[in-house]
Design brief:
Elements: E1 2-6, H1 9-21, E2 26-28, H2 36-46, E3 49-53, H3 56-63, E4 75-79, E5 85-90, H4 97-108, E6 111-113, E7 133-135, H5 137-146, E8 151-155, E9 168-170, H6 194-197, H7 244-247, E10 255-259, E11 269-272, E12 277-283, H8 289-302, E13 310-316, H9 323-332, E14 336-339, H10 341-345, H11 354-360, H12 366-372, E15 378-385, E16 389-395, E17 401-406, H13 417-425, E18 428-432, H14 433-439, E19 448-452, H15 457-469, E20 473-478, H16 488-494, E21 500-504, H17 509-517, E22 518-519, E23 525-529, H18 537-549, E24 553-557, H19 567-576, E25 584-589, E26 597-602, E27 615-619, E28 625-627, E29 630-632
Parallel strand pairs: 1-2, 1-3, 3-4, 5-6, 8-9, 8-10, 10-11, 12-13, 13-14, 17-20, 17-21, 18-19, 18-20, 22-29, 23-24
Antiparallel strand pairs: 4-5, 7-11, 12-16, 15-16, 24-27, 25-26, 25-27, 28-29
Helix pairs in contact: 8-9, 15-16, 18-19
The structure holds S-adenosyl-L-homocysteine.
Length: 642
């Protein structure tokens, strides 16, 4: 039983909402007749779990005299007066308070506050995995939050995903067929029993539970041969917030998370659906949406494949505006990809036929289009026909993901939210050790970190691409913008089109410095690196001359190091040939870092010894001025002229 205790009107309203949401599972202790101390004492003795609508301080004082030990005390959640937070105060794992906090939050619209180690920073949440989930979500989430029973993770192949929640136990190797070698019809015939499919040691009882699979999604539940043949995933109808005692005997099936596009029969299992399947469709003129949708669903069901893994419908160009096919793609919520007949004609397929050859110029539409939409993939369901339509399914090769992420100049609040999201999404992080240290705390627990020292650029680039090719979600990091004198170009020079690449822009040093200096970049400007390690000096010098002649504002990166001390004075002397000695020059050391130093001086006045490798030097153009100590380059357009 869950005891509900309140001391105010708002608390009472909260208790009533919980009682209404969980009929038969709660006891209201708010009788108003006894002092709160006695009410708490009674509830503590009676209940498996308590929800106290009290400040944490008050709750701690009231509970303290009764505490006996982790194994015996009820799980306790406190909720603030405004119902903003549900705090798992006591018995996070054993007492089920972590999952109770989540359950209370979902009823009240509050935010769960969970502080046990493995659950920090959202690490238990399956929602952090970027795949649609179906199946026994409440039961498995609860097991992850409570740390018991153990939940195992299985996958057919590597799909790029963030680190798994630490509570999820990866079985290695997963007892499942290798990628692509899954006999497509393994689930068409009598499906193997759940026990055969689940990890060794797990005895499985199949429950006669309602299939949650496909809920809220166009139609797995309604598809022919799904529930009827028992191929749909079965799921425990686990109501959030049940007490451990109430869970009892129904939870005897092993708890698992499967990342797979196959329909597997198993209780207490969450299925994460990778974007792996493409469905090729053909249709005679006038075919209806219903016919296409029904055929696609039955083709998937027959092959034991999950609808939520479908990423696209595909057909021949000539059918691009066939209304029934267009509407079917919309019904599945996926794009319709179309291919020229000669592209499809060139793809070898198991079941070519004469009819489409005569009609649209290719001997296969469904099978060839499915394959065309899944480069490097394979056919997992051969062509099936209805009166006016055909359908076939292909499985794509998983594509790894390489995010090239700029971390900004140093300050945490100049790391963009998108960069943070990409860091948390990666299971592998590649970068220079000093940059890794800058953001280590932002990484999801379990991130594999491949750090290396200065100078290992090529190797870092190769490692990042190789990891992405292996199917992982990789973040390759760089300071400032990762594309500016940094890792993006060596990495992308290495990468083929078999991985997905995303770039996250960062605040580059020139911009961070400009913001500190004033407005030096108000007109045309250029960045030049003075490092002649990889670029011959005469090339650098030619560019400095061109910038000087073109009157561009110049920002020098890599301006000066212990071994490279003559390049900066030389570059400045070239600029001085075209600009006055009092041209403003900004020197910014360690922009946005604790040892930041900013100076505005002049071409004649700059002391090069104040410049090092953590500095950028920005030289104004002939119109740049110093105004109130700030560097300003006028925009100079006519509308601004005096
Ligand atoms: N990708 C980085 C640049 C790498 S090249 C970016 O976009 O900022 C390295 C050079 O950048 C350094 O020698 C220095 O000139 C400059 N730099 C990088 N971070 C800096 C900072 N916080 N302050 C000043 N200069 C910086």
């Amino acid at each position: 039983m869950i005891g509900l205790i309140s001391a105010t009107a708002a608390g009472r309203a909260g208790c009533e909402r919980l009682a209404a949401a969980w009929p038969g599972r709660t006891v209201l202790y708010d009788d108003g007749a006894r002092p709160l101390r006695e009410v708490v004492a009674a509830a503590f003795a009676d209940c498996d779990q308590l929800v106290l609508f009290l400040a944490t301080g008050a709750a701690v004082r009231l509970l303290a005299p009764h505490l006996r030990g982790k194994a015996e005390d009820p799980g306790v959640v406190t909720v603030d007066e405004a119902h903003r937070y549900a705090v798992a105060l006591l018995g996070g794992h054993g007492g089920g308070a972590n999952s109770l906090a989540a359950a209370v939050s979902s009823v009240l619209g509050a935010e769960p506050v969970v502080t046990t180690a493995t659950d920090a920073v959202g690490a238990t949440s399956l929602d952090t995995l970027p795949y649609p989930a179906e199946g026994a979500l409440p039961a498995v989430t609860r097991a992850l939050l409570d740390g018991t029973p153990p939940v195992t993770f299985h996958t057919d192949t590597t799909w790029p995903h963030p680190p798994l929640p630490p509570a999820l136990i990866r079985l290695s190797p997963s007892p499942s067929p290798a990628p692509g070698s899954a006999p497509p019809d393994s689930a068409v015939s009598d499906p193997p029993s759940a026990a055969e499919k689940l990890p060794p040691g797990g005895s499985t009882t199949r429950k006669n539970a309602s299939p949650e699979a496909g809920q809220g999604h166009p139609g797995e539940d309604g598809s022919p041969g799904t529930a009827a043949t028992g191929r749909a995933e079965t799921a425990q109808p686990g109501g959030a917030g049940r007490t451990p005692a109430e869970r009892g005997a129904e939870d005897d099936a092993p708890y698992a998370v499967w990342l797979t596009d196959r329909r597997i029969t198993a209780g207490n299992t969450v299925f994460l659906r990778p974007p792996s399947l493409t469905v090729g469709v053909g249709g005679s003129r006038g075919v209806t949406r219903e016919e296409v949708v029904t055929l696609v669903r039955s083709t998937l069901a027959e092959a034991g494949l999950a609808e939520r893994s479908v990423t696209a419908l595909a057909t021949v160009d000539a059918k691009a505006s066939e209304a029934g096919i267009v509407a079917a793609a919309a019904a599945f919520g996926v794009p319709l990809l179309t291919f020229p007949a000669d592209t499809l004609a060139a793809i070898p397929v198991p079941n070519p036929s004469a009819a489409p050859l005569a009609a649209v110029g290719t001997a296969s539409v469904a099978e060839a289009a499915a394959l065309a939409a899944a480069p490097g993939g394979e056919l997992v369901a051969q062509k099936r026909k209805s009166a006016m339509a055909t359908a076939a399914v292909a499985r794509r090769r998983p594509r790894g993901r390489l995010a090239v992420v700029g971390l900004g100049p140093g300050a945490r609040d100049l790391v963009t939210p998108r960069a943070v999201a990409e860091l948390r999404r990666a299971s592998v992080l590649v970068g220079l050790d000093q940059y890794v240290n800058q953001i280590r705390d932002l990484l999801a627990p379990g991130t594999r970190i491949l750090e290396s020292g200065l100078g290992a650029e090529e190797e870092r680039a190769r490692t990042a691409v190789a990891e992405a090719r292996a199917g992982h979600a990789v973040a390759l990091i760089g300071s400032g913008d990762a594309g500016v004198y940094a890792m993006a170009s060596p990495a992308l020079a290495e990468a083929a089109d078999d991985i997905d690449v995303v770039g996250v822009p960062g605040v580059t040093a020139a911009l961070a410095a400009a913001a500190l200096l004033g407005a030096p970049l108000g007109h045309d400007h250029v960045s030049i690196s003075l490092s002649d390690l990889h670029t011959p000096w005469d090339v650098i010098e030619r560019r400095v001359r061109a910038a000087a002649e073109a009157d561009l504002v110049v920002t020098f990166y890599n301006p000066r190091s212990r071994g490279r001390d003559w390049q900066l004075p030389k570059a400045l002397s070239i600029l001085a040939g075209h600009r006055a000695p009092d041209t403003p020059v900004g020197v910014v050391h360690a922009a946005s870092r604790p040892d930041e130093r900013v100076a505005v001086t002049t071409l004649a006045g700059l002391d090069p010894t104040t410049v090092d490798m953590v500095t950028v030097v920005t030289v104004g153009n002939t119109a740049s001025r110093t105004v109130a100590g700030r560097m300003v380059t006028p925009r100079g357009y006519r509308w601004q002229a005096p």
